[in-house]
Amino acid sequence: MTSRLVRRTLVLLVCLPLAAHAQSPKPLKIETDWSKILLTSKSTATLQVVVNPPLRRGSEIHDAAFRNLKNLGADYVRYVPWLPYPRLAVAELEPPTPTTTSWDFSLIDPMTVDFLNATEGHSVILNFSTAPAWLFKTDAPVKYPEDPNEVTWHYTQGSELKDPTGQDLAAYYARLVDWYTNGGFSDENGKRHDSGHHFNIPYWEVFNEPDIEHHPTPEQYTERYDSIVAAIRKDNPQMKFVGLALAFPSTHPEMFEYFLNHANHKPGIPLDMISYHFYATPTPEQTADHWQYTFFDQADRFLATVRYIEEIRKRLSPETRTTVDEIGSILSTDFAEPPPPIPDAYWRLSGALFSYIYIDLVQQGIDVIGESQLVGYPTQFPSVSMLNWKSGEPNARLAALQLLKDNFGPGDQVVTTKADGQEVAAQAFEHQGKKKLLLVNKRDRSISVELPGEFSTATLSTISGAADGAKPVQSDWHGTTLTLAPFAVVVLAAGS
Questions:
Q1: 352, CA 20 to 30 Å: which among 40, 164, 421, 439?
Q2: What is the pLDDT of residues 465-486, one digit of tens each?
Q3: What pTM did the predictor assign?
Q4: Is residue 148 a contact partner of residue 88, using CB atoms and an 8 Å limit?
């Protein structure tokens, strides 16, 4: 089959011609005004990588997962060893004694080194979010599984530190960072531990979802942030820091008000960046037919929350940047036994959801927009995965991120764009001197749109595939009326 025929076939499959839908409703009109620039984009699209067993060396998808991460070539990739796997996330599981310590990176290093090698040449945000349980006051010592692959949801207990000054907590994180950036550290008893690592880690995020883990007050979180940042900066003065990482930002305005007020911090402590999260989540009673409405309705409520947070940030600390570093969707069936199959339409819907949120966050001037997460699997949020957990190849969620990353970025001119109705989101950009149009179909049906004249001849990029082996594909486009497939994410590059 000739190359031209292949490209024409892609147009037929992905964007059905209007002639096949003569009885369809009137096409929705898309309008652009290139003389009215809304803003210059500051936004980078990226993702997070959460530590779990499928990313360990020797797993069936290890090589494919890190190959796909490397090929994506994203900046500000977030890496999070976290609470379900203490042996993969905590480097000192037992408290030190006057003669011994339990520092051990043998299980942590392989995956972390693979991540840092896969993202070499790109900025990263590391967040070893789970602190040793022995640092906190608990009724009894916190137990953890011997098997590093076994899940526990009970490791992060207690809210009060045994050391109220926070210095023991800060010293743990300073040593942890030095292991990866400065070749090693001296432990609590003065013994040297050499790693040989000298990685460039530009950003460190302090804790993950504290509104779920340990539940510190705004004052406690800020005190701990200050102590950790001060300790890390002694040996890493160039490092920048990310704070808050809230799971439910709409319910914690007090965290933003307190943390972003420089008067509440020790002198010299930087507020480089804040972060927070969003997942669309349907109720168990809802069927796949409902998801398309639930997801986007919840997204709109979250985007309204962002506007309020932005006003707090601009008032208190306008120099502080923002990363929304977990964006995704979680199905209520993720922990069902046995888990039901996830329909192909879900992956396309979730990719469309991220693309829709991306448009609004670009318009709001958010710096980093991160999709969650590279790998999930049954019992560990399978619906959040961006790779097929059996093959390690992309699903439509990762393909959507690839499409956005390859076509848009900081420095783009964001142009005034209007779209009829609520079913299709549209945003025009001038990217590196080229006019581009991003379209997102929010509905599980084909919808026709009338394009601005400048896109009557264009290169059309969209997503082929859903659950496994999904990827962006290109084809030639000629015409003014385009029919978007259900949950389609499409980029048109004018005149190509």
A1: 40
A2: 999 999 999 999 999 999 999 9
A3: 0.94
A4: yes
